[in-house]
Specification:
By secondary structure, this protein is α+β, with helices and mostly antiparallel strands. Helix content is 32%, strand content 30%. It is built from three helices and eleven strands. Strands 3-4-5-6 form a four-stranded antiparallel beta sheet, with helices on one face. β8 and β9 form a beta hairpin. The longest helix has 27 residues.
Length: 194
Amino acid sequence: MASVFYIQQSPASSYSYKFILSHPMATPITVKEYAHNLWKAGTFTSAILCLTLFITFWNISDPFWSGIVRLTAFIFFALAVLGLLKLMNGPLRVTLEKTEGLLLISYQKKGTVIQEEQFEIDTIKQILPAQPGYNPLYTLVKATPVAFKVNFNDTERELFLFEFSGRPLLFTKAEQEKIKQFLQAAEIDKEVSL
């Protein structure tokens, strides 16, 4: 499927140029990282337990139990603050774009690009969906999130295609399908299986 473009130099000139693009460019896509609902529930639960234990701490007269309840209240306070910070960050948005010979990946947080990567398409051997490793918390989640691994021609080692701050990014089934369709439309890897 080829696209043909005609460009005319000027109205007075009879010369025209014909450009044939053998591969149409794939439209860039933006997908969202999978965010567990466990963070919301855990943050809310930690805040409630922190408040309950803090009130209990003020009503206990025994110094031994007072110290234990105070320590436990502080632990739940720390968990509530960490969960709140994670929720405020929100999930990352990943934009995939194909330019001439390059696969561009940009990571965005709250509309600001915070990291960009580029891969030469010729060096990509294949892209595979893969579980990032066994985690017992994933069994609690109904949807099975998946990360993408990439193999290059110059190495036998598999690397994560979408990796931010040393952690692989996980995607839901709908987002996986969008990534698969982009990779096939961009003719980067026609054999991506989900």
